[in-house]
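Dear colleagues,

As part of the handover before I leave the project, I'm documenting each prediction I ran so the next person doesn't have to rerun anything. This entry is a single chain, and its sequence is reproduced below.
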Amino acid sequence: MTASSVGVRARPYDNVVATPRAAGRITSLDLVRGVVMVLMAIDHVRVYSGVPAGGPTPGVFFTRWVTHFCAPAFVFLAGTGAFLLGEKLGDKRALAKFLVTRGLLLVALELTFLHVAWTYTLDFSNLLAGVIWMLGWCMVLMAALVQLPATAVGVVGLALIFGQNVLTPLAGMMPASTHWLWQFLYLGGEVKIAGVSISILYVLVPWIGVMAAGYGFGAIMTRPQDERDRLCLRIGLGATALFAVIAGVFVATHPAPNGAPPALLRALNQQKYPASQLYLMMTLGPTIALVPLAARARGWLAGAVTTFGRVPLFYYLLHIPLIHAVSLLAWYLRDGSVGAGRFASAPYVSIPPGARWSLGLLYLVFAVCVALLYGPCRWYAARKSSRPARWMRYI
C-alpha cells in the first residue's frame, strides 16, 4: 500500500505522524491507527445504546474488550509520530513548540466542543477529562522530554509504566492541599475548580509513559523495513507472551468466587483506570506486532481504514456528534421517542436492562456511522495534502 493509493501525500505536520523519508508516510502506522479509530466507534455507540461496559456474557464482554486497544495505541503512536515529526523538522525546539500548542488545543477541545458533542447541552458545570484531555497534557509534557535522546525518552516511559504504583503511597505522604494535583496525575476522581466539577477519567500517569515509550519506538521505525519488522515482532509478541504468563498465573492461583466469569474472561479483564501494567502489555503487545502485517495489507478495505488513520483527530471530533445524532434516530425508530435527556451526562449513561439495545442494533448503528465518516475523512485527507490551511496542522 502506498500513500498515492488513497490519494494523499505526507506533510510535515500531517496528523502529528510523518516519516523521515521524503517519498511518503509509513502507511503501516496509518493503517494500525485507522483500525483503532474504527474500533473506538464501537465503544462510543455502546454508550448511547445503554449496553454496559463489559458483562458476564461473551458478547457484551468482548464488545467492550476489543475497544481496550484504542487508547493505548492512540497514545503510543502519538509518541511515535512526535519522534518522526522531529526527524522531519530537524529542530527539537520547533517540535516542542508544536507539541505544546497542539496539546493545549486538545485540552480546550475536550472541555468545550467535545463536551457539547457528548451531551448536546451547554451546561459546563460538570466536565469530563477524557482521552483527548489526557492526550493534550501528555503532549505538553512531551515538549520537555523530547529534548533528550530517543532512547532516554523511551526508558523514562517504561519506568513510568512499570513504576506507576509507587505514586499511590507517595500521594498519601503529601499535604492534603496537593491532593487535587495527585488526582490529575494518577489518582483520578472528581475535582472542583472555580465551581466547575471535572471528572478525571484519564490521568496523566501512566499515559505519559506510554507516549514516551512510543517516542522511543519511533527510532525503530526509521530502520530498514526488515530490521524494524523483526524488532516489532520481537517486542510485540514478547509483551503479549509476558502478559499471558503473568495473567494466567494470577488466574490459576486465585480461586474464582461463585458466579465468576470463565478463566479467559478473568485474565482479559484488566484494569484500565488507571491503566495497569498488564492492561498495557495486553493491548500494546498485539498492536506493535501488527505493524509488520499492516505494512503488507492491500485492497480497498485497507485503503479505507488507512484514510481514517491519516486524519485521526478530524475523525474523532466528527464521530462523537455523529454517533450521538444517529443513536437518537435509532432510539426514535425503535421506540417512537428519542429520550435525549438520558444522554445529558454522556458518556456516563445508565439505562435499565430492559430498555437497552441488542448487540445487533449496536453493531448496525456502528457500521452506519463508520460508513458515514468515510466520505468526510477522505475529503479532509485530500484537502490537507493538496491545499492545506495553516490551522490544518493541528487537526
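The chain is about 65% helix and 5% strand. The chain has one domain: 3-393.

All the best with the project,
I.
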